[in-house]
Automatic annotation (TrEMBL), chain A:
This is Translation initiation factor eIF2B subunit beta. The lineage of its organism: Eukaryota, Fungi, Dikarya, Ascomycota, Pezizomycotina. It comes from the Eukaryota. InterPro entries: eIF2B_beta_subunit (IPR051855), IF-2B-related (IPR000649), IF_2B-like_C (IPR042529), NagB/RpiA_transferase-like (IPR037171). Component of the translation initiation factor 2B (eIF2B) complex which is a heterodecamer of two sets of five different subunits: alpha, beta, gamma, delta and epsilon. Subunits alpha, beta and delta comprise a regulatory subcomplex and subunits epsilon and gamma comprise a catalytic subcomplex. Within the complex, the hexameric regulatory complex resides at the center, with the two heterodimeric catalytic subcomplexes bound on opposite sides. Keywords: Cytoplasm, Initiation factor, Protein biosynthesis. Belongs to the eIF-2B alpha/beta/delta subunits family. Its main location: cytoplasm.
From TrEMBL, chain B:
Residues 742-763 have a biased composition (Acidic residues). Keywords: Cytoplasm, Initiation factor, Protein biosynthesis. Its main location: cytoplasm. It comes from Humicola insolens (Soft-rot fungus). This is Mannose-1-phosphate guanyltransferase. Component of the translation initiation factor 2B (eIF2B) complex which is a heterodecamer of two sets of five different subunits: alpha, beta, gamma, delta and epsilon. Subunits alpha, beta and delta comprise a regulatory subcomplex and subunits epsilon and gamma comprise a catalytic subcomplex. Within the complex, the hexameric regulatory complex resides at the center, with the two heterodimeric catalytic subcomplexes bound on opposite sides. Belongs to the eIF-2B gamma/epsilon subunits family. It is found in: Cytoplasm, Cytosol. Pfam families: LbH_EIF2B (PF25084), NTP_transferase (PF00483), W2 (PF02020). It comes from the Eukaryota. Signal peptide: none annotated. InterPro entries: ARM-type_fold (IPR016024), eIF-2B_epsilon_N (IPR035543), eIF2B_epsilon (IPR051956), LbH_EIF2B3/5 (IPR056764), NTP_transferase_dom (IPR005835), Nucleotide-diphossugar_trans (IPR029044), W2_domain (IPR003307), W2_eIF2B_epsilon (IPR044123). Residues 1-12 have a biased composition (Gly residues). The keyword Ion transport does not apply.
Length: 428, 763
């Protein structure tokens, strides 16, 4: 690919470079079509989504948190729908939504402490059923008032209050009109602050995405023991890094499975990986895919990277991994799935996922093979779904987990309000 | 001409400040593409009466969407769309789409322009127009508006650029997809088989030809120069997807050849043929992976639709939903279904695409079909391999097999639509109609000239709407080159490829010979009938005695094909004009033109000889006979004037007309002269006077050392010179000359010289 330095085919890098000189809508649209045309796929999706949402936060016009959330949600939905089989897009959108909520809540707290008027709280209280009416008291001591607020039983408070706090003079009719002017200037400042905080937050998400592989590789020496026979099925970048790291600490034997039939003109598959492993003194064995089962008894563990982890613990993986996982399961060999936290998806796998995405049939039948093209129906699934019972360890960048602890990871990273973010727009 | 213009422009650019050069370089980075959105063909009739080809739905998506998305996926930034017929529809469509509208900020193209050419009759006219506009700044991609492809052109573009930088003349790269040697549906659907002769090491194209099952000769003649390239491959297993990567020089080539019409048959063939003249090198990039095809006829439409369903065109598959507002999902049984589709229980849909709002009632089976939006499929309907566009209604119990039913058509209950039927927009079939299967019906509500058709109730039933669509006679004739039954396009105008009912024996070569052999036959509808008649008048020198000439003429070149006729006319014209021209005495340009024509048409030696003979005899006849408008010189003087008045003409006749030193060649040329005079091709002359002129010309040629006495004697002895009454009379007049030659033969060469001197005195 070196010769075409002036390549015209759009890529993620080009897109990111073009952020500054193109309008936001155009860049979002470009990304959507890159996703639809599968010119960005796999791990790049997460990165691309984070980048574009950062642009959304930075460039779009919004005056309160609700507008921002709405904007992120609608653009996020379009992105997620562009590639329904790349759940990481949705994950990143959820993370960003959660991030905005957190930052807004923080701002609110800060405002509360600073502001003596707290007119909005007063509003809510007057609206909330069964709220105690003593208003003068509130004004004098905000600190005292807080427990009262928290004690309110209505869930309305949780979901609505924090946005009303920041929004400009809601039509509910605020009794104190004089407060609107200082509020709006404060709002400007807070919008500004929020914007930069959210962008910083997205920056952190991007860092997390880029560091996740290294962090996972950090656990390599715990998972791989000296003398192990490790089977890696179609190693992804994450797995490659993991193996290289492991090789620096341990002597083991690697079996590479699921290799494509080598294209005579191209470099043999995983040549770079094998070179580096060999340099570290790790022996690699290439398996033809139909020989996989025969080697399983000898193997100590099976490793592959996941494209996504669903909340039931099922995995979305590249096609073929399921065979390896099943084989390992039969022989009671541990199956280790490498999955950074950003790949955890608070959803159940859809029918489409379970059936697998179809690629083009050319990897099985050449288009030049006329009779076969005419007579055969070729379905080339490019993704597999691995049911949760086949996976033993989920090795995340936060450490190894079992299926039973996935719920807590999901709870830590996503807010319940955002889980079904795309469905909210789907209906309209 | 325009090439020079381009050079001039570049020189000016260089003269300016270096900053400007920098800007130019930046421009170079902008990838441009030209879409030819009109094909000037009617293979999709009757559908294209109402909708342009590029807006016909292919798997429920207008074809041009695939093309534009292909360009967008390759990072094209500027697009020019050439529209011909229905340009308003295309413009409205693009402007109405949120994605492509040039005014919208989300368009992936920086620029999208429509170019209309009011008087364009062919793709060649488009490209010549493009050359004039000077909007192309660097390498550009030339595609047709019916392209479906997922190829990534980056590597090919880089190669093209490297070649161009190495050699300025490497200006053109054709992208081809190999489909293997085994029978293949795409290959079968072509009708015309392109034959590419390629140098496998460099990828350079050496020759291009086309074959089709209806042609008389089932072989391709290799250009001898092909052999000078060392290794070469002759390939017919390639699908030409119509993606060309061109430098602006290519447009100059189009402009130079004002008569090129088709990018392949004329341009590619011609430029390769004239390689020695134009020095351009064309390359082919043969791909073994990726998908590329043109929905250039109904069979290809059928093929590509199936390929899309089988996901060869990945990512251009229904569930990518590349078009705004599409909501396809892949569901079980290999179906792609949009939102709000109702498939009732008890009906079976397999391997099909169903658009939103469609209802399939109980008991129906749909397989391998594509059904548009808002269709109503009744109960117990059977639909197989068919293409049903938006808003159609198919009544209960109907059967539709391998057919196309266009928008808003109604198929009544219990109808039978057999294989290959084409039902156009708004046609209504009454209940219980069974359409004919052989030949499959093409039903439309419009006639060929866009008038509402009178409903044929016998066909569509009482209360139906529509009539059999028939191609207007004259159009058919102007559109093809070899008569209606001989045009390969006929293979492509139906949904099902079939040679049935077509006479494809090779023996009937003359069955499509035109009445007057010298009439320039209409080539691809460029000239209308009026022009071709005047041409024939012109060629035959003011309507000479066709009656007697015709039979002769027929034997004269029974095997010559149309292109050779065209060559003949052009060549004779050119030479004759040059001979007539009183201003200059230079014959070189005429010679150059003649050689160019010869290369372009692949004219045989015989054809050349004939053309030269006719041209010279016509000039001589003109000078000789006052009734032809000439001064009425004596025969000998007229012959001498015709042959010697122009410098280089004699050499030309010797080298090209006769073509060699051999006796047989000389005899052939003499025969050609005789025929030209006898047939009346040279002008209106009585046989006796024609003979006189022939004798004078032969004598002149003899004295000019063009013909030797052996040649003339061989001609005299040739039986062909005595065929027919006129020929005999003409020949008889030369007896004196021949006898004199025979006598001279016995004497010595010194005598000959004396004769020569005599001749000169005569002059």
């Amino acid at each position: 690919m070196a010769p075409s330095q002036a390549g015209h085919v759009p890529t993620l890098d080009n897109l990111i470079k073009s952020f500054n000189d193109r309008p936001l809508e155009a860049t979002i649209d470009s990304l959507i079509f890159l996703l639809k045309r599968r010119q960005i796929k796999g791990d790049d999706c997460a990165k691309a989504t984070a980048h574009i949402l950062r642009q959304v936060v930075a460039k779009s016009k919004w005056t309160n948190v609700n507008q921002l959330l709405e904007k992120v949600r609608s653009d996020g939905t379009r992105l997620a729908q562009a590639a329904p089989l790349e759940p990481v897009i949705g994950n990143v959108v959820r993370r960003v939504l959660g991030l905005i909520r957190d930052e807004a809540a923080e701002d609110r707290n800060a405002d509360d402490l600073a502001s003596e008027t707290a007119s909005d709280i007063q509003d809510i209280q007057s609206l909330a059923p069964g709220a105690p009416p003593p208003q003068p008291l509130q004004r004098t001591t905000t600190a005292q008032m807080r427990p009262t607020l928290a004690s309110l039983p209505s869930n309305l408070l949780v979901s609505n209050s924090m946005f009303n706090l920041l929004s400009v003079a809601e039509p509910t009719g605020s009794p104190i009109t004089g407060a609107s002017t200082p509020m709006s200037s404060a709002l400007h400042a807070s919008v500004h602050a929020l914007r930069s905080e959210v962008m910083d937050g997205i920056e952190e998400i991007l860092d997390e995405i880029s560091q996740a592989d290294d962090q996972i590789a950090g656990f390599a020496d715990i998972q791989i023991h000296p003398g192990d026979y490790v089977l890696a099925y179609q190693p992804t970048k994450t797995v490659e890094r993991f193996l290289i790291k492991a090789a620096s600490k341990r002597r083991f034997t690697l079996l590479l499975a699921g290799l494509q039939t080598p294209d005579p003109s191209a470099e043999p598959p995983y040549a770079a990986l094998r070179k580096r492993l060999a340099a570290a003194g790790v022996q690699t064995i290439n398996l033809a895919s139909n020989g996989l089962m025969a080697y399983i008894p000898r193997v100590n563990k099976v490793i592959f990277g996941a494209k996504a982890v669903y909340q039931n613990g099922g995995l979305l993986v590249d096609s073929g991994c399921c065979v390896a996982a099943q084989a390992a399961h039969e022989y009671l060999k541990p199956v280790i799935a490498l999955c950074p936290v950003y790949k955890f998806t608070p959803e159940d796998p859809s029918n489409e996922v379970v059936r697998g995405e179809l690629g083009d049939p050319s990897s099985y039948v050449s288009y030049a093979n006329g009779p076969a093209v005419d007579l055969l129906d070729i379905e080339n699934t490019v993704t597999d779904y691995i049911p949760p019972e086949l996976v033993d360890v989920y090795l995340t960048n936060l450490g190894p987990q079992t299926r039973h602890h996935l719920a807590s990871i999901l709870a830590d990273h996503y807010k319940t309000e955002d889980i079904a973010f795309s469905l909210q727009l789907d209906e309209s | 001409m325009s090439k020079q213009g381009g050079k001039g422009g570049a020189a000016v650019g260089k003269g300016k400040k270096p900053a400007k050069a920098g800007a130019d370089e930046k421009r170079e980075d902008v990838l441009q593409a030209v879409i030819l959105a009109d094909s000037f063909q009617d293979r999709f009739r009757p559908f294209t009466l109402e909708t342009p080809r590029c807006l016909l739905p292919l798997v429920n998506v207008p074809v041009i969407e695939y093309t534009l998305e292909f360009l967008a996926s390759n990072g094209v930034q500027e697009v020019f769309i050439y529209c011909g017929s229905h340009h308003q529809n295309i413009e409205d469509y693009i402007r109405g789409s949120t994605r492509w509208d040039p005014r919208s900020s989300v368009s992936p193209f920086q620029k999208l322009d429509f170019i209309r050419v009011s008087d364009a009759n062919s793709i060649g006219d488009f490209l010549r127009d493009l050359d004039k506009r000077a909007i192309i700044t660097g390498d550009f991609i030339l595609v047709h508006g019916d392209l479906v492809s997922n190829i990534q052109l980056d590597a090919i573009l880089a190669k093209h650029r490297a070649r161009r930088e190495a050699n300025r003349d490497a200006c053109f790269t054709v992208v081809l997809r190999s489909v293997g040697e085994q029978p293949h549906r795409t290959a079968r659907a072509r009708g015309i088989t392109p034959v590419f002769v390629v140098d496998p090491t460099t990828g350079r194209l050496l020759q291009y030809d086309e074959m089709h099952p209806l042609q008389s000769e089932h072989y391709v003649q290799l250009d001898p120069s092909v052999f000078s390239h060392g290794e070469f491959e002759i390939r017919t297993d390639l699908v030409d997807c119509g993606i060309d990567i061109c430098t602006p020089d290519v447009l100059a080539l189009w402009s130079e050849s004002f008569d090129y019409e088709l990018p392949r048959k004329n341009f590619l063939h011609g430029v390769l043929k004239d390689w020695e003249l134009n020095g351009k090198m064309l390359y082919a990039e043969v791909l073994d992976s990726g998908y590329a095809a043109r929905a250039s006829n109904l069979q290809m439409y059928d093929c590509i639709s199936q390929d899309v369903l089988e996901r060869w065109t990945m990512p251009f598959v229904p569930d990518s939903n590349l078009v705004h507002g599409y909501t396809y999902k892949r569901v079980k049984d290999g179906n792609y279904i949009e939102h709000r589709v109702v498939i009732e229980r008890g009906s079976k849909v397999t391997k099909s695409v169903v658009g939103g709002g469609t209802t399939v009632k109980t008991g129906s089976t749909v397989s391998r079909s594509i059904i548009g939006r808002r269709c109503k499929i009744g109960k117990n309907v059977r639909i197989e391999n068919s293409y049903i566009w938006d808003d159609t209604v198919i009544g209960d119990g109907a059967t539709v097999v391998h057919s196309i039913i266009a928008n808003s058509a109604v198929v009544g209950a219990g109808c039978r639509v057999p294989e290959g039927s084409l039902i156009s927009y708004h046609v209504q079939l009454a209940d219980g109609v069974a359409l004919p299967s052989k030949p499959p019906a093409r039903i439309a509500t419009l006639t060929d000239d866009q008038q509402p058709a009178e409903t044929d109730e016998r066909l569509v039933g009482a209360g139906g709407k529509g009539a059999l669509y028939e191609v207007a006679r004259d159009e058919e004739e102007s559109d093809d080159e070899e008569g209606p039954s001989r045009d390969p396009a006929i293979l492509q105008s139906s949904l099902i490829y079939s040679l049935e009912g077509l006479d494809i024996t090779t023996s009937s070569v003359s069955s499509f010979e035109s009445d007057n052999d010298f009439t320039s036959d209409v080539d691809d509808g460029d000239y209308d009938d009026g022009i071709s008649t005047t041409e024939s008048m012109d060629v035959s020198g003011g309507g000479g005695d066709f009656g007697s000439g015709e039979a002769q003429a027929r034997t004269f070149d029974a095997a010559s094909s149309k292109s050779q006729d065209a060559f003949h006319n052009d060549a004779v014209h050119g030479l004759h004009d040059a001979l007539r021209d009183t201003t200059g005495d230079d014959f070189d340009s005429a010679k150059l033109e003649f050689m160019g024509l010869r290369l372009a048409n692949n004219a045989s030696d015989a054809a050349m000889r004939r053309a030269i003979a006719v041209a010279f005899t016509r000039r001589a006849a003109e000078l000789f006979a006052p009734e032809n408008g000439g001064p009425g010189l004596e025969a000998a003087k007229a012959a001498g004037e015709a042959l010697t008045s122009k410098k280089g003409a004699v050499k030309f006749v010797r080298e090209v007309g006769v073509g060699g030193e051999e006796v047989s060649q000389q005899a052939e040329f003499a025969l050609a002269l005789q025929r030209a005079l006898a047939s009346g091709a040279a002008g209106k002359l009585e046989p006796a006077r024609a003979g006189l002129l022939l004798a004078a010309m032969l004598q002149q040629l003899y004295s000019l050392d063009v013909l030797e006495e052996e040649g003339i004697l061989a001609w005299w002895a040739d039986g062909r010179a005595e065929e027919g009454e006129t020929m005999k009379v003409v020949r008889e007049k030369c007896r004196v000359l021949v006898e004199w030659l025979e006598n001279a033969d016995e004497e010595e060469s010194s005598e000959e010289e004396e004769d020569d001197d005599d001749e000169e005195e005569d002059d």
